[in-house]
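pinging the channel bc i need a second pair of eyes. not urgent but kinda urgent?? the chain im working w is below, pasted from the shared doc
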Amino acid sequence: MKTITATATSAIAIFAAGLMLASTAQAQTMLVKVLQESDEIVSQIYKEVPVKSCRVEQIPIYGTQSGGAQASTADVVASAIFGGLLGNQVGGGTGKDAATLLGAIAGADMANKKGRDKQVVVGHKQQEVCDVVMQQRTVSQVSGYKTYIEFGDNIWQMTTTIPYTTGEFLRVNVDITPAE
């Protein structure tokens, strides 16, 4: 078996003994028969591929915790008075009245929030968390096909970009040049 490298549409240089040729080169398209199914040519290449990465994490479980008893009326009034006194120290003129009022409201609000329920972590659970990351990997990839043809009572191997099956006909360009 003789080996040549060409694509199905590229020129195949063949010296055919016994053919009577003119003194100048001749190029022609010929149909040749494929003798067997094409074999894959596999190459190793570096390629970015997605890789799934998983881990188990502790995830917090939230619940409600009581903040204690509700603030009493005395606590709210005392906080409003204290907030008003602090607000009175800020500002001047009509701004002083507004600051006193805002301080009283803020103090009363803080006393009311003291007794409310709040969200707290009451436990943990295990949960699988996955991410997809891109990594460089060596992968096998088909880069062409070895195709065996019959031409001039010889078997030739050529490299093609697509696979062919047994018995299929392939159109090739043949460039025949006489030997000097």
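so Residues 2-23 have pLDDT under 50 and may be disordered. and The chain has two domains: 2-46+141-176, 69-116. — does that match what u expected or am i reading it wrong
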